[in-house]
Amino acid sequence: MPTTSERIANILTSKYHVPADRIAPDATLESLGLDSLDLIELLFEVEDEFHIRVPQEGGPAVKASTLQDIVNTVDTLVEQEARASELPS
Question: How confident is the model over 39-79, as pLDDT tens digits?
């Protein structure tokens, strides 16, 4: 199964046409040619890909400096979602 980083890299290459060789954990969205609107659109793509809800207002993903920041946020949200789904209704 692909890692979180690989799945996000796939979104960046397929939807935003970012060259794969430019995608690195320390890359900023700006360095990849993406702006703040692209970030919001990317977060919607991430929500669909990972079946999570990314907080839009002030959440850590919105304030992300690097791709690794986004990966860390997604991993945390996926883990929280998994724990929540294990709770009895």
Answer: 889 999 999 999 999 887 756 666 778 999 999 999 999 99
CATH class of 4-86: mainly alpha
Q: Which of 17-26, 30-39, 47-56 has the highest mean pLDDT?
A: 17-26
Where do the domains of the chain lie? 4-86
78, with CB counted inside 10 A (0-12, 13-18, 19+), is middle
Task: Tell me the catalytic residues.
Answer: 35
Q: Which long-range contacts (CB under 8 A, 24 or more apart) does 34-42 make?
A: 39/64, 42/11, 42/12, 42/15, 42/16, 42/70
